[in-house]
Task: structure prediction
Amino acid sequence: MDTTITENLGSLLKRVTGFDEFRRGQEEVIRSVIQGRDTIAVLPTGAGKSLCYQLPVHALGGTVLIVSPLLSLMEDQVAQLKMKGEKRVAALNSFLAPKERAEVLANLGRYRFLFTSPEMLVQPHISKRLKQLRIAYIVADEAHCISQWGFDFRPDYLRMREWLAALEDRPPVLALTATASEKAIRDIADYLLMRQPELFIHTPDRPNIAMELVRLAGREEKTEWILKNLLRWQGPGIIYVQSRKRAEELAGHLRNREIHAAAFHAGMEGEDRILVQQQFLNGELEWICATNAFGMGINKPDIRWIIHDHLPSSAAQYIQEIGRAGRDGGQSLSTLLYSEGDADTAAFIATDDLPEPETVHFIGKCLAEGMDIREAGELAGLSETALRVISYWLDRLGTAQAAIQMDRLAKAKREEIQSMVQFAEGAGCIRSRALGLFGYSPTFRPAHCCSECGLDPAQILTVRTTARNTAGLQGWRERINSLFGVSAEE
Amino acid sequence: MSFDDILLNIISRIDGERYKHAAFHLMKGKRSGQTLQDTEYYRLHPFFGMLPSLHANDFDLAYRRLLAAGLIAEKEDGTVFLSASGKTRAASQGPVRLNGWSYRGMERLFFARLALAVQTVSHLSAGDKSFMPVTADPVVQRDVKRLFSTVLKGKKPGDLAWEMRSSLEAAGMEDDRLSRFAARLTGKGMSGMTWYQLSEVTGISEMDLKVEWVETLHIWLDSLAKRPTPILAALAKGVKAESPLTGSAKKTAEMYRAGLGMDDIAKQRNLKMSTIEDHFVEIAINDPAFPIRDFAAPEDVKAVRDQAARLATRKLSVLKKAFPGLAYFQLRLILARIGKEEGADGYDDHGKPGKPAEKGHRI
Result:
């Protein structure tokens, strides 16, 4: 049985994608899904995770239901499938107009790939329709978001458990993520009600990304370091920053030095965010100064350099963000700029969305008095995320336990930051220590390993050759003509 | 016209009778009875819904600039009025070219479709079938996709380029303005500029650029309606508001016409009475055949009208003092009918049920 599947998998791959060979890690996952097993796959960024859920359905038939916690990511994956010529794909999310949603719902059986969000999943009329569907398997994408221990915890994702529990004959579940600690993997298996899941865990090590750690006195020194180095060496790259203000500030400094850079953060209009991504993909921008709003779903293979202007709040976030470099396999660099004060800011940001136990008690009291949860949240001055977290735990645990839970979560976050501080202040091979935060060790030591192993960035970076001019405003007739590639006379 | 000048223009129309919030809600296109009523009384149609995602902060900054420049001032009760220099400045302004009432934010849909169509044609003509769409909105994506199997089928890239050039030429706008407009479009190997980037290149503030962009779309769409070209007309389909009523008010109007009373409508629709009242004010504003006699005695209507004219006010609180026997709702309805042509409000003209509103404004 196993051998036939292996043989078939090769030809299936060829038929569907045109590729001759699987990338490392893909084949085992695909086989496990085809065999109907619950599967957890932890594959490093750039390893071709999407193929793991895209291929099995071609052998099994029916519909794949992909649950994705991030709307932007969902749209992106739909777009990429369509780009590859897949027509039987749809997203069922809150972006849809009522008429459109009705249309998708009426044609559910037609789709090979159906993307949806956890919130949609639990809506009774949608849930009912989905249950009538022949689902080949269910995919939980970015599954680390389901874990309360993950840096990207999305309480809504937990609703998937309720939905799965209500299914009489549950199809197999495939959980995909790039980074998950042992704790998070336990959470994933538990929340998704998996039955003896097959685990395929690959080290998050990316040998083609050299790791550099630079200790500096403070923010001004960081700015100086960035400007000096970016004038000398070329990108394209991303600078991850802590705040919108810092993103704007750094991008401004770079532009003043004729380096094409733009800020990217959640405060910008949606259209402008797309334009910035577009410019970056096109090579019109060399650097993006971004908050962590940027990255998920970005598919630029030739990013050469990731710089962290601040201490990431967890190892998982750090690894995820540097993993956006060098997806084409080319030699790339990641630089962490660290100063002593970083820990406090990181702690503040990481726990900002986490309500205090007193706040939980306050909200609980308001609710008991019959107040609407939104109103109570406004009174307490809570962010939307904080309110979602509270609302989820209040529902399930009651006030007292929910308050304790908040404390537990805050403690866990502080511990994660503490281990990042130890990482940044410690000595010894950076790669080994970064992987050690997940319980892995490097498979081998690459030639360009890290600044502790004698890395010389000059050997892998490209010298900046041209100072580019900023383009002025084109005349409108000229621009329209060049958009369509026509000459003025046509 | 700059954002500040537009705000000044709006204030010149509500001079001394409204608070600053009235201008804010108007620009955002809030569909409340009050805002719709203001729009009608003070002839604010061009500005209605011109900036649906306007932030209160940006608005306040502009408002404070006008205050600091001495162009406007606030009375003790907080209502805002024009100073002498404000009046001079307002009088020297060019004509308003916005047409918010007709498009109500939907001009953005036209642009989103246009931008995606341009991007798609641009990539396809360069032999590139896969690209990241400039809009993530699946509705827009589907709209444009449909066009490629209908009006865009078999067209050459030059056809769309020609339509855009000649249609923009015919709309009679300045070259500089159009260059700023075209800079937002994306094609193969050439991305559009963000507002921030456009602001850096031109030295014009982001806010003023956004206002100009909306105005450009309104001017173009108005002109396009008179001289339609095949592809652009398809892209503009459904962008102009067909009925001046909001969807919900329309439903209330239908139920009322079918013979239901206000209480019944509120109950059946599970809406608050105040919402239904807002709907009726909206209908009274927009439907020339609105039967005001069903809601107020003819002599009351006349008395309120005369009083409003004598005091030169449309402030409810003032009129309520003069007519304590009338409900606020009645006063609002009567005010809604001021300025409507005589004889068109259901007294002499005994209803033409089902007939479309002929004398309504800018429908």
In short: DSSP finds 19 helices and two strands in chain B.
